[in-house]
Write a structure and sequence with these properties.
By secondary structure, this protein is α/β, with parallel strands linked by helices. 34% of the residues lie in helices and 16% in strands.
């Protein structure tokens, strides 16, 4: 790792090589810490697929928010690719790891500890808002970022199974209708949709 990295976007092959080092370091972190409670809810995405999607969205989005940022990989990648990138994560130790990783790979990436669910959101399970793994007893992190969901052009997430409707409700209520929702699902792969077109 080189802590002197800035956030300018390098040519694709060079940047991908750098990300390969990031992905390997994150995998090593997982191997060392997977038995710790903070890592019990951590799941890695297909980072190559996310990278490919972000590369195609250059010019369509400026601000990126990662919900449940875990070890911060997507936020860091987005930052290195030239986006203004933010991550929200409920587990304090994962935020600390993310910030350490960002020093070497994407120092302009910003992270906040807390919930990505706005404090004003009213959870209604009768609307299909299944909440199985998402942390809901933490304060919203948007104040720490000094931003709101509607300030972001692109929101990325890897929803827990059966929580997709919940995420859609939050976005439809609080995000800009023209914003993009980039979603990774192990079964469905990468999906991209505008907030105004989300099904709830």
């Amino acid at each position: 790792m080189n802590p002197e990295h800035d956030s300018t976007c390098k040519p694709g092959k060079t940047l991908l090589a750098e990300f390969g080092s990031l992905w390997a370091e994150v995998e090593a972190l997982w191997e060392r810490h997977q038995e710790e409670p903070a890592f019990h809810g951590y799941v890695s995405a297909d980072y190559q697929a996310v990278y490919d999607s972000l590369a195609q969205l250059k010019g369509r989005a400026l601000t990126v928010l990662e919900w449940g940022s875990g070890l911060g990989v997507v936020t860091i990648m987005a930052s290195r690719m030239g986006f203004e990138a933010y991550g929200i994560e409920a587990e304090a130790s994962l935020v600390e790891f993310s910030e350490e990783l960002a020093l070497g790979y994407g120092p302009k990436a910003k992270f906040a500890q807390g919930s990505f669910i706005p404090d004003q959101f009213q959870w209604n399970p009768t609307d299909g808002d299944n909440m199985i793994r998402t942390v809901v007893d933490a304060a919203s992190a948007y104040n720490d970022l000094e931003m709101e969901i509607r300030d972001f052009d692109l929101i990325y997430s890897y929803p827990w199974p059966n929580e997709r409707v919940l995420y859609h409700h939050i976005l439809r209520e609080f995000a800009c209708p023209e914003a993009l929702f980039l979603c990774f699902d192990l079964r469905a792969g990468i999906q991209l949709v505008q907030v105004k077109d989300l099904r709830v």
